[in-house]
Amino acid sequence: MKTLSALLILLAVICTGCGGGGGGDAENAATERNNVTSTDDMKASLESIAQSGEMGSAAMGFRETLEELKKTDSAKADQLLSDLDKLEAASSPAATKKIAKGMADKL
């Protein structure tokens, strides 16, 4: 019985591990790469989209960034929000590239 108890405790310790959580840093880095929080970040992401023609997760945060831009430059933000709607609806890589380049140039 003592042996069984000792084995169960050992198993619990092994399963629990050290709890280093090394994967959290990689997840945070991925989140930071995909979360656009400034117009500079947005411009860099748009330039990347203009090169590749693929939007993917690079556009995460665009709408929120533009809503923040409305506070300081409403006209530019409204125009870029309209362009963002077109970018999200683009059906071909060529159209995506063209719209993304135009948006980046406006920033």
From TrEMBL:
Region (Disordered): 21-42
Superkingdom per UniProt: Bacteria
Keywords: Signal
Signal peptide: 1-20
Name of the protein in question: Uncharacterized protein
Organism, scientific name: Gimesia chilikensis
